[in-house]
Amino acid sequence: MEIKYCWRCKMEVPMLDKEEFTIASELYSKGFKIAKSDRQEKFKELLDNYNRLTGFEETEPNAIMHHSIEQIGPDCEHCGKPYRTPKAKLCAACWNKK
Ligand SMILES: [Zn+2]
Ligand SMILES: [Zn+2]
Predict the structure, then answer these.
(1) Which superkingdom, per the lineage (predicted)?
(2) C-alpha distance from residue 12 to each of 2, 9, 18, 56, 82 (Å)
Protein backbone atom coordinates (compact mmCIF):
# COMPACT_ATOMS: atom_id res chain seq x y z
CA MET A 1 0.00 0.00 0.00
CA GLU A 2 1.21 3.47 -0.86
CA ILE A 3 -0.44 6.88 -0.61
CA LYS A 4 -0.74 8.34 -4.08
CA TYR A 5 -2.72 10.96 -5.88
CA CYS A 6 -5.84 9.55 -7.54
CA TRP A 7 -6.97 11.31 -10.69
CA ARG A 8 -10.54 10.12 -10.32
CA CYS A 9 -10.99 11.00 -6.66
CA LYS A 10 -8.85 14.15 -7.04
CA MET A 11 -7.11 13.49 -3.77
CA GLU A 12 -4.40 11.35 -2.22
CA VAL A 13 -5.63 7.88 -1.36
CA PRO A 14 -4.10 4.58 -0.29
CA MET A 15 -3.30 2.63 -3.48
CA LEU A 16 -2.94 -1.13 -3.32
CA ASP A 17 0.05 -2.99 -4.64
CA LYS A 18 -0.29 -5.99 -6.93
CA GLU A 19 -0.79 -8.59 -4.20
CA GLU A 20 -3.17 -6.47 -2.14
CA PHE A 21 -5.16 -5.62 -5.22
CA THR A 22 -5.50 -9.28 -6.23
CA ILE A 23 -7.06 -10.01 -2.85
CA ALA A 24 -9.33 -6.97 -3.15
CA SER A 25 -10.53 -8.09 -6.60
CA GLU A 26 -11.39 -11.50 -5.20
CA LEU A 27 -13.36 -9.99 -2.32
CA TYR A 28 -15.08 -7.70 -4.80
CA SER A 29 -16.30 -10.54 -7.00
CA LYS A 30 -17.29 -12.45 -3.88
CA GLY A 31 -19.43 -9.48 -2.88
CA PHE A 32 -21.55 -9.83 -5.99
CA LYS A 33 -22.58 -13.30 -4.89
CA ILE A 34 -23.81 -12.17 -1.50
CA ALA A 35 -27.57 -11.84 -1.55
CA LYS A 36 -27.95 -8.60 0.35
CA SER A 37 -29.40 -5.41 -1.02
CA ASP A 38 -27.18 -3.08 0.99
CA ARG A 39 -23.92 -2.39 -0.88
CA GLN A 40 -21.94 -1.85 2.30
CA GLU A 41 -23.05 -5.26 3.59
CA LYS A 42 -22.43 -7.01 0.28
CA PHE A 43 -18.91 -5.68 0.06
CA LYS A 44 -18.21 -5.68 3.79
CA GLU A 45 -15.23 -8.04 3.47
CA LEU A 46 -13.68 -5.89 0.77
CA LEU A 47 -14.22 -2.66 2.70
CA ASP A 48 -12.95 -4.21 5.95
CA ASN A 49 -9.88 -5.59 4.22
CA TYR A 50 -9.04 -2.25 2.59
CA ASN A 51 -9.71 -0.22 5.71
CA ARG A 52 -7.69 -2.55 7.92
CA LEU A 53 -4.81 -2.40 5.47
CA THR A 54 -4.88 1.35 4.97
CA GLY A 55 -6.40 2.81 8.14
CA PHE A 56 -8.78 4.60 5.81
CA GLU A 57 -12.56 4.64 6.10
CA GLU A 58 -13.61 3.83 2.58
CA THR A 59 -17.31 3.18 2.09
CA GLU A 60 -17.47 2.91 -1.69
CA PRO A 61 -16.44 -0.51 -3.07
CA ASN A 62 -15.99 0.87 -6.60
CA ALA A 63 -13.43 3.39 -5.39
CA ILE A 64 -11.23 0.60 -4.09
CA MET A 65 -11.33 -1.13 -7.45
CA HIS A 66 -9.44 1.65 -9.18
CA HIS A 67 -6.94 2.18 -6.37
CA SER A 68 -4.30 -0.07 -7.82
CA ILE A 69 -0.68 1.07 -8.13
CA GLU A 70 -0.35 -0.97 -11.31
CA GLN A 71 -3.20 0.86 -13.03
CA ILE A 72 -2.01 4.40 -12.39
CA GLY A 73 1.48 4.15 -13.84
CA PRO A 74 4.78 5.47 -12.47
CA ASP A 75 5.20 8.78 -10.64
CA CYS A 76 6.13 11.88 -12.63
CA GLU A 77 9.74 12.82 -11.86
CA HIS A 78 8.79 16.49 -12.04
CA CYS A 79 5.67 16.87 -9.87
CA GLY A 80 5.44 13.47 -8.20
CA LYS A 81 1.89 12.69 -9.29
CA PRO A 82 1.22 9.40 -11.05
CA TYR A 83 1.12 9.49 -14.85
CA ARG A 84 -2.45 8.22 -14.75
CA THR A 85 -1.94 5.13 -16.92
CA PRO A 86 1.08 2.86 -17.32
CA LYS A 87 1.36 3.89 -20.98
CA ALA A 88 1.04 7.67 -20.64
CA LYS A 89 3.84 9.69 -22.25
CA LEU A 90 2.85 13.05 -20.77
CA CYS A 91 2.10 13.94 -17.15
CA ALA A 92 -1.50 15.11 -16.95
CA ALA A 93 -0.67 17.49 -14.09
CA CYS A 94 2.42 19.36 -15.29
CA TRP A 95 2.86 18.21 -18.93
CA ASN A 96 6.27 16.84 -18.17
CA LYS A 97 7.34 14.37 -20.86
CA LYS A 98 8.43 10.99 -19.68
ZN1 LIG B 1 -9.73 7.09 -6.69
ZN1 LIG C 1 4.10 15.91 -13.49
Answers:
(1) Bacteria
(2) 10, 8, 18, 11, 11
Annotated domain spans of the chain: 2-72
- β-bridge partners, 4: 13
Q: pLDDT tens-digit profile of 51-65?
A: 999 999 999 999 999
Asked whether 76 and 93 are in contact (CB, 8 A), the reply is yes
pLDDT confidence of 98, banded at 50, 70, 90? confident
**Residue 74: nearest ligand to its CA?**
2
For CA atoms 28, 32, 34, 39, give the dihedral sign.
positive
- DSSP annotation of 98 reads -
